[in-house]
Each structure stands twice: as structure tokens, then as C-alpha cells.
């Protein structure tokens, strides 16, 4: 375990760690599959993320803490193999009780990433469903965090980018090829929405990477491998998915 987390481990109370463990064990399939040491590391990153993020959760939803813990776990899951462990731009998360619209627009959203407000917005019923049904490659929280992370990586001028430059370049080559395939109707493993643009392809790819990794690896081995290296993990290796710990 990295020194940073060893130190955080001393500061976080047992009560907080147990609470995160309890909720993640119940609702996050990825977490449940991890070996014990990795579970401990995951919990520390999860607490760190909830503490470094501002959540505004609709009071109608009742208990806010479990909601924040579960939403955070989607971010931690994506970034578990990376050094960067929080968001610096999109670090405001609004959790709505139902799908929502913006003023002067009829479009209804279940989630979106808003560059003007630096926020990620999520409708809780869809987030919950994303975790409950863990093998349909639909996970709203993973989807929206994928956008937030990639946008933040592209726009970051600080020394805390998410991805290795070379790995991202490799991924982009295969992603572009896949985008063309999806648009040509020659698509097996992703849902068609991935063909919208290269950003949506990334979000759908990560949903599929975590919820249908074997299907993904079978049908698109090069793209799958490029994401393994990009995120430094391979979810097929349940228990111990990290490539370089
Ligand atoms: Zn999207």
C-alpha cells in the first residue's frame, strides 16, 4: 500500500472504514470480488474521495451518506490502478431524486457532466439500478465519471493528469477504429449509443469493461487490452485486478 494511504489509514476511524466496507460489500460487485488487502485499499480511496468531493444530495432521498459512498465507489473503481484519486474540476456532485431538465430545455437527463458549473449530476434511481444490475453494461455513475475524468485529463494543466500519455494514444487508435465499426452497424459488444462520438464511446467502453469484461475481451481484444493498460487493471482477474500494484 502506498505511503499516502498508510497514513490516511491511521487518521480514518474504524467506524468510518466499517461503514464504507458494509455498503460497498452490499452494493458494489467489483468491490465484493477484491482480495482482502485490495478491499482495504479501496475503502481508503473511497473515504478520501467522499471527503474531497462536495455532494449536494436531494433531501427527499433520505440518508445521504450511503448514497455518497456508493457513488464514490464508481470513481474509485475506474481509478483504482491510477495515482490520481480525486477530481479537481468536476468535484461537485449533485444527486437528484429523479431525472431532471435544465431551464429552457425539454431534454430530460438521468445524468450529465456540466463544464460550466464543474459538476457531475446524477439521478439516484438510475445510479442505483446501475449497481443492482451488474452485468448489463449500464452503469450511470461509471458512465458520467468516465466523462468527468477524461474531460479533466484533457483540460488539466496541473501535474495530476489521470492517464499516461502513451497509453491514451494507444487507446485512441483502437477507439477510433471501434467508433467507425459502431457507426457502420458492425458492432457486437457495445450498445449503439457508443457511436454518438468519441467521448460517449469512452463512457460506454468503461461501462462494458467493468460489467461485461469477458464479452468485451473476446470481441474486441485490442481495445480491451488498451483499456487495461490505460487504467492499469484487468477486471477479468477478479480478486486481484491491478496490473501494477
Ligand atoms: Zn455520456
What does this structure look like?
- The protein has helices at 3-11, 14-27, 29-32, 36-52, 64-79, 124-132, 140-155, 165-183, 198-211, 213-219, 221-231, and strands spanning 54-57, 92-96, 111-114, 119-123.
- By secondary structure, the chain is α/β, with parallel strands linked by helices.
- The protein folds into 2 domains: 3-144, no CATH class; 165-231, no CATH class.
- Helix 5 links the parallel strand 1 (54-57) and strand 2 (92-96).
- Helix 4 (36-52) crosses helix 5 (64-79) and helix 9 packs across helix 10 (213-219).
- The longest helix is centred in the last third of the chain and has 19 residues, at 165-183.
- The radius of gyration is 17 Å and the shape is globular.
- The mean pLDDT is 96.
- Zinc ion (ZN) binds next to helix 7 and helix 9.
- Zinc ion binds next to helix 7 and helix 9.
Helix percent reads 55-70%
- Class derived from helix and strand content: alpha/beta
- Could you say which overall geometry the principal axes of the C-alpha atoms support? globular
End-to-end separation: 8 Å
Count of structural domains:
2
Low-confidence stretches: none
Biggest sheet strand line-up: 1-2-4-3
Q: How many helices?
A: 11
Order of helices and strands: HHHHEHEEEHHHHHH
Report strand %: 5-15%
Radius of gyration: 17 Å
Number of strands: 4
Q: Key features?
A:
binds zinc ion; alpha/beta; single chain; globular
Concise account of the structure shown:
The chain has helices at residues 3-11, 14-27, 29-32, 36-52, 64-79, 124-132, 140-155, 165-183, 198-211, 213-219, 221-231, and strands at 54-57, 92-96, 111-114, 119-123.
Amino acid at each position: 500500500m502506498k505511503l499516502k494511504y498508510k497514513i490516511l489509514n491511521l487518521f480514518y476511524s474504524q467506524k468510518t472504514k466499517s461503514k464504507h466496507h458494509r455498503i460497498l460489500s452490499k452494493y458494489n460487485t467489483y468491490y465484493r470480488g477484491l482480495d482482502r488487502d485490495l478491499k482495504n485499499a479501496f475503502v481508503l480511496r473511497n473515504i478520501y474521495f467522499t471527503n474531497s468531493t462536495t455532494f449536494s444530495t436531494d433531501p427527499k432521498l433520505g440518508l445521504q451518506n450511503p448514497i455518497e459512498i456508493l457513488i464514490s465507489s464508481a470513481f474509485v473503481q475506474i481509478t483504482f490502478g491510477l495515482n490520481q484519486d480525486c477530481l479537481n474540476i468536476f468535484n461537485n456532485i449533485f444527486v437528484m431524486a429523479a431525472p431532471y431538465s435544465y431551464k429552457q430545455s425539454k431534454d430530460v437527463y438521468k445524468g450529465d457532466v456540466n463544464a460550466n458549473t464543474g459538476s457531475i449530476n446524477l439521478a439516484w434511481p438510475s445510479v442505483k439500478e446501475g449497481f443492482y444490475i451488474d452485468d448489463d453494461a449500464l452503469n450511470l455513475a461509471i458512465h458520467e465519471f468516465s466523462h468527468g475524468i477524461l474531460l479533466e485529463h484533457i483540460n488539466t494543466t496541473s501535474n495530476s493528469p489521470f492517464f499516461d500519455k502513451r497509453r491514451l494514444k494507444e487507446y485512441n487508435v483502437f477507439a477510433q477504429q471501434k467508433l467507425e465499426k459502431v457507426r457502420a452497424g458492425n458492432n457486437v459488444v457495445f450498445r449503439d449509443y457508443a457511436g454518438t462520438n468519441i467521448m460517449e464511446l469512452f463512457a460506454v467502453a468503461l461501462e462494458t469493461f467493468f460489467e461485461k469484461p469477458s464479452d468485451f475481451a473476446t470481441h474486441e481484444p485490442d481495445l480491451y487490452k488498451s483499456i487495461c493498460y490505460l487504467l492499469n487493471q484487468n477486471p477479468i482477474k477478479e480478486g486481484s485486478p491491478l496490473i501494477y500494484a
